[in-house]
Design a protein that fits this description.
single chain; alpha+beta; 2 domains; two-stranded antiparallel sheet; two-stranded antiparallel ribbon; 6 helices; 12% strand; lipid metabolism; acyltransferase; pyridoxal phosphate; Serine palmitoyltransferase 1; serine C-palmitoyltransferase activity
């Protein structure tokens, strides 16, 4: 079964048991930035302890409009998210098969479109393999 919920609803955690909820407008909403909401003492601590630019800059109008429109599309056509979850599950399964017996492993939730691919070999080999993989397909890659 597929859900159009946040992580608290997905795992059955009452929202009042959560001190802070954070979200990103990047990737899925084709924008940038994010948000944090929660109990005032926690958010206040976050604001005081975080880097200044995080809380002093607003989104450019074009990016705010893009995020708002993406949310509107999801709201009026929730089937889009269900299809994305189905496609993500298929890709997850195919990646698991493709990585079997290799130095690559896959982590994360199968219905999530974001796939965490771990290379368990030598670092210089990882860089070479990653370059090959990125050149073959259009991928968004973050190195840690």
């Amino acid at each position: 079964m597929y859900f159009l919920t946040g992580v608290t609803e997905h795992y059955g955690v009452p929202i009042l048991d959560v001190d802070m909820v954070i979200g990103s407008l990047e990737n899925a909403l084709a924008s940038t930035g994010g948000f944090c909401v929660g109990r005032s003492y926690v958010v206040g601590h976050q604001r005081l302890s975080g880097l200044g630019y995080c809380f002093s800059a607003s989104l450019p109008p074009l990016l705010a409009t893009a995020a708002s429109e993406a949310l509107r599309l999801i709201e009026v056509d929730p089937e889009r998210v269900i299809k994305l979850q189905q496609y993500s599950k298929c890709i997850h399964k195919e990646l698991q098969v493709a990585f079997k017996g290799s130095n690559f492993s896959l982590r994360g939730v199968d219905i999530s479109p974001m796939k965490h691919i771990i290379y368990n070999g030598e670092r210089n080999m990882m860089d070479q393999k990653l370059d090959e993989l990125v050149n073959k397909a259009s991928l968004y890659v973050v190195l840690e």
